Amino acid sequence: xxxxxxxxxxxxxxxxxxxxxxxxxxxxxxxxxxxxxxxxxxxxxxxxxxxxxxxxxxxxxxxxxxxxxxxxxxxxxxxxxxxxxxxxxxxxxxxxxxxxxxxxxxxxxxxxxxxxxxxxxxxxxxxxxxxxxxxxxxxxxxxxxxxxxxxxxxxxxxxxxxxxxxxxxxxxxxxxxxxxxxxxxxxxxxxxxxxxxxxxxxxxxxxxxxxxxxxxxxxxxxxxxxxxxxxxxxxxxxxxxxxxxxxxxxxxxxxxxxxxxxxxxxxxxxxxxxxxxxxxxxxxxxxxxxxxxxxxxxxxxxxxxxxxxxxxxxxxxxxxxxxxxxxxxxxxxxxxxxxxxxxxxxxxxxxxxxxxxxxxxxxxxxxxxxxxxxxxxxxxxxxxxxxxxxx
Amino acid sequence: xxxxxxxxxxxxxxxxxxxxxxxxxxxxxxxxxxxxxxxxxxxxxxxxxxxxxxxxxxxxxxxxxxxxxxxxxxxxxxxxxxxxxxxxxxxxxxxxxxxxxxxxxxxxxxxxxxxxxxxxxxxxxxxxxxxxxxxxxxxxxxxxxxxxxxxxxxxxxxxxxxxxxxxxxxxxxxxxxxxxxxxxxxxxxxxxxxxxxxxxxxxxxxxxxxxxxxxxxxxxxxxxxxxxxxxxxxxxxxxxxxxxxxxxxxxxxxxxxxxxxxxxxxxxxxxxxxxxxxxxxxxxxxxxxxxxxxxxxxxxxxxxxxxxxxxxxxxxxxxxxxxxxxxxxxxxxxxxxxxxxxxxxxxxxxxxxxxxxxxxxxxxxxxxxxxxxxxxxxxxxxxxxxxxxxx
Lengths: 391, 391
Known about the structure:
CATH topology of the largest domain in chain A: Aspartate Aminotransferase, domain 2
Helix content of chain A: 40-55%
Oligomer: homodimer
Number of helices of chain A: 14
Distance between the termini of chain A: 59 Å
Radius of gyration of chain A: 21 Å
Strand content of chain A: 5-15%
């Protein structure tokens, strides 16, 4: 056979839009011995994982479990189970992932009404109200933390609007869960999904989801069969919900990793985790601003875990990111869709949200921009960030 | 917070229908440092993984890649991309997984014609011909290695029948790939899927698939959009097929494991791997028969990697499996569907197909059955197996 080198990925500092840095305990957990998906020990781990996810989502929802796929599979799971052809759906879109929701609803034969605002803006509540328009609506979908833009969207008012017309509220928590508060029960959210590779700091491959009783009632009253076998919650209910009836073989080792990742968060304490994300974000912003760079999103709507930075005129986006990667082993993200070449996406997610990452990134970026001949303020960023860290 | 114990799954010998024993090199690979899914190093690994999977499937198909889900997601990927409502589909069913194919086709609105034979039998070619009935058919689906029964199904004649009426041939290779020869190009198979947790001896979570040019042409000529966004090959083609356009975040660490697992197989050599599976199977059968137990499947149709053993009258299935697990840390499977309480499913898959596993299992089973008061032949099984191993 042809020769292949020994697997030896470089240790990177993952400060893009995900995957984020993985805690050593999580990497260790995923290499624990594989046991069977029907082994009593594994069933006990399943119970624990569901319990841990409920704490993370702040919910009592019984049907809270990780879908065996990545975040987008979580999105599809929520939508394919509740939507039927002809259903009216309102989707709020201010980035790539709202657009994905609309695409999925359209494929499922729903009548999609979009509330669109430019990338990087938050979606005003009255625009959503106008789109709902007092009409019977099956689902209102919105992204809590837009990974493509760094915008944080307030949720509770949207729930009220949705429920007024009997609609379910679907919230994308891919980038929010574990980074900023997610209060499924308090906000009265019906369906939510997340991913493991953002603020949970677990490798990608699983999508935690949670379904309210209201959404389960909708599923039980469907006229047609759920079109996806793999994502059919009626069957997943028997596997994750009660009798552990075999449906598909769960990704055992990934689930070990998820269990460990959520344990790490809860051991630190949710409030402490949120405060850490906020502080490191403030330190990063102080450093960037001291360097003369601007954030893309207005202050009240900024996500602490995903910072979009305006690329100054005349800067070669790809060259900067390549230097960060090859010289300093730092990964950040470029802009997606309408924001291509316009912003950098700097993640401080989960285990990656650490003072040393903020310092390393600021120092590396200043060095690269200076060499590119940009008129950045030199020697100010580190000190500005440090002041925040000490505060 | 509530206290949770340190993750500490018992080391089991996995001789069920999957997951199978995982080679230490694979467990080590999946805990390698996570890098980004758009990192040039990861892109290079993606190329290698596709190349390795082509060797395993014996195909030149460009569109050969691992779906980010378990084996059933692979099944659904193949079907959701080629089927449209009203399509005529012939599904050969002699076990649980043929039934699952029919279920998925039905959900997609296809007109499903089933060829059913009892669990444990192979499907005669003339029964398939009769079901096709010379009519224009979109897809013929069949399981190469029925995980629920241990039956091996000949494939090449089915391909000829399917192509005569312009149908695509879909083959379930979940349990066959890496255990018995799978010759996608030589047999002229259009769509095939597998799973990682059977003869590849990798943890569950990925589904290798391969699509022929003929099937891609069918997808390109669809009238309707693929109903699943997550599994839409039109977009996956841009990610796995050429430009590496971001679609979803690939399960990085699981892919490290898959790369290592396939490397292990190719380093040993496909022919050697198949011969090893065959020999350990023969040793197991010799031992079981010496003990007085019978195999459920007729000899010519037995899978070496999945052995269904008839449970003797008066034996408590669950009690035997529980003793195997709790006393000896051996996992085997019970019967599924129509075979519940009637058979044991003993896997010798991938890294689990080793002489020491055969010996351990025979010794443990003899001990348990003897204590249960069954009239098994004592002290013969080990010697009978050993004779085969030395031959």
